[in-house]
Amino acid sequence: MSHHFDSPTAIADGRINLCDLFVFPGVPGTTTLILTVNPDAGRSSATTFRPDALYEFVMASDGGTREDIAFRVTFTEPDNAGNQQMRVLRADGAAARQGIEGTLLGEGRTGEIFPLGVGGLAWAGLAADPFTADGIALAGFLQGLAAGRYDPGVFTSSPGNIFAGRDVTAVALQVPDADLGGTRIAVWARISLFGHAPQLQVSRIGQAMLRPLFFSPPDTESEILNAGSPETDMDAHGKRVHSIADAAARLAGLADPDAHAEHVQAAFLPDLVPYQPGQPASFQPGGGNGRALDDDAFDIAVAVLAGSTLGNASIPQPPTPEFPYLSPPIPAELPALADLFGLREHGPE
């Protein structure tokens, strides 16, 4: 949905399927960075992190599309209890663009909070999925657009939340604002594989809802998007986003479909999150400031595409009072999403 099962590679291994990215102020003078992965963790996928994967928060300290800071997280093989050692490194300048090296900031074990540099914290583990979305309604709406119909009525006053009762694995860092390099920055997250072959980027996320709105169902272009960089997003994917937004505007009877499509294109591309450290988080494609855990990204993003408020997703859970701010996992008896979607046949690893 937000980024769940968004490409063939992600479907094959949930441990390298980025789901969501959150960027918001933590305790005064700090920023919290959270990425979630592994949709349906513990059901169709493992509850651990992939040992040959590099999980990164990257940023452009000038607010642009060329990263110059990378916080790099790696994990060891899990022990018999499923616990892993976790290391967090930082790379700067040109070294932030590629590679696995960096200055060690801290190391610890999954499920435990540990210090990160001076004034920072780190944690990784299993958590309740913080994202909410009426996936059935969105699928019906997008199918209608593809067939030449505009049907806002699929979004009802009693929305479903396909992610209720489901878990993800997450990485959370608390970083001093002074370490982010600027007062207006751009943030995104990515995963790459390393160790057995040349380093290969396989997943990337900035904007919530870019993929389910414009790259659903997942296809070859989804893989290209995930392997790419914000620098090339507009050239590589602008036409696709513009075309879908233009169709929505024409079917909805908006006064200037082309202007609307250009607005939507600029709102969702490039695929990054703008952020001003120290300012309240508020998600909004094409503006806003970071993304808080309780921002209603689903409804906000659907409204940008449609040009009016349509969605009515379940309200996200508020953050917990202390770092890492995520709710604990939910031991609900639910079928695996991968089975519901017909994506995979095997169970958890």
Describe the structure.
- It is a single chain.
- The two termini are about 20 Å apart.
- About 20% of the residues lie in helices and about 25% in strands.
- It has about 350 residues and is an alpha+beta fold.
- Helix 5 crosses helix 6.
- The strands form two sheets. Strands 3, 4, 5, 6, 10, 11 and 12 form a seven-stranded antiparallel β-sheet that branches. A five-stranded antiparallel β-sheet has the order 1-2-9-8-7, with no helix packed on it.
- It is globular, with a radius of gyration of 19 Å.
- It contains eight helices and twelve strands.
How are the secondary structure elements laid out?
Layout: H1 8-12, E1 18-25, E2 30-37, E3 53-60, E4 69-75, E5 85-92, E6 103-109, E7 114-116, E8 120-128, H2 135-146, E9 167-176, E10 185-193, E11 200-205, H3 210-214, H4 220-227, H5 233-252, H6 257-268, E12 273-275, H7 297-306, H8 337-340
Antiparallel strand pairs: 1-2, 2-9, 3-4, 3-10, 4-5, 5-6, 7-8, 8-9, 10-11, 10-12
Helix pairs in contact: 5-6
Radius of gyration: 19 Å
* Average residue pLDDT: 91
Runs with pLDDT <50, length 5+? 344-349
Count of alpha and pi helical runs: 8
Q: Please tally the β strands and state the result.
A: 12
Order of helices and strands: HEEEEEEEEHEEEHHHHEHH
- Supply the helix-strand structural class: alpha+beta
Into which percent range does the helicity of residues fall? 10-25%
Q: What is the makeup of the main sheet?
A: 7 strands, antiparallel
Proportion of β residues?
15-25%
The termini sit apart by: 22 Å
Shape descriptor reads globular
Descriptors:
seven-stranded antiparallel beta sheet; alpha+beta; globular; disordered C terminus; 349 residues
